[in-house]
Amino acid sequence: MEHPRDRLIVALDLPSVDAAEAVIGQLGESVTFYKIGYQLAFAGGLALAEKLIFTGRRVFIDLKLHDIGNTVEKGVESIARLGATFLTVHAYPQTMKAAVVGRGDSNLRILAVTVLTSYDDADLAAAGYDFTVPELVAERAAQAHDIGVDGLVCSAEEAAMLRPNIGHGMVLVTPGIRPSGTATGDQKRVKTPRDAILAGADYLVVGRPIVAAENPRAAADAIVAEVEAAANEQV
């Protein structure tokens, strides 16, 4: 298992590269893994990803791809050449199959997003799904496993359910992490870092509790310490 510090992924959900670089500078060596999503990717974030990779950091490109198979395949090929570690796609079978083909023999790992952590059962019903969140997560996780996807993005609520079913060959990446005492924001299925690790998560994605903190480095270090303590509980 990786060092606790390498299991924390800081989400750079910021409006500009300058803002992201300021946070990266504050975090220094306390963080080794960053996530770049829509907001930053469309504001020059892919160039920043290349820079981070060149300096030895790992990067998670969170674009949640979903399109016709050929488009997904070619997009994944481009991200693989970038040198990213993780890339998200939505967990639709055709999309996942295309992403696995596009990944080829590169080191890029494809993560399937089962159900967004801002969704609950009512949101699924409003979208026309006749599933509860746990049911849909389980169905999509099984499909991802059979297709050969490398890992899943899921809430910590589902991690404990999924781990026995998928084994340890797939990684579980958990967003919606909120340290005790912090606001949940627009997330509906949240857990503390400790809860997520004990549930079976391999990596935790944390954004606002770190990037919006008065002292981002101290906030990151506190989460890493919680990850380490939880990992020791598992031993």
UniProtKB/TrEMBL annotation:
This is Orotidine 5'-phosphate decarboxylase. Catalyzes the decarboxylation of orotidine 5'-monophosphate (OMP) to uridine 5'-monophosphate (UMP). Keywords: Decarboxylase, Lyase, Pyrimidine biosynthesis. Gene3D superfamilies: Aldolase class I. Its EC number is 4.1.1.23. The active site is at D62, K64, D67. HAMAP family: OMPdecase_type1_B. Belongs to the OMP decarboxylase family. Type 1 subfamily. Pathway: Pyrimidine metabolism; UMP biosynthesis via de novo pathway; UMP from orotate: step 2/2. SUPFAM superfamilies: Ribulose-phoshate binding barrel. GO terms for biological process: 'de novo' pyrimidine nucleobase biosynthetic process; 'de novo' UMP biosynthetic process. The keyword DNA-binding does not apply. One of its GO terms (cellular component) is cytosol. It comes from Rhodoplanes roseus.
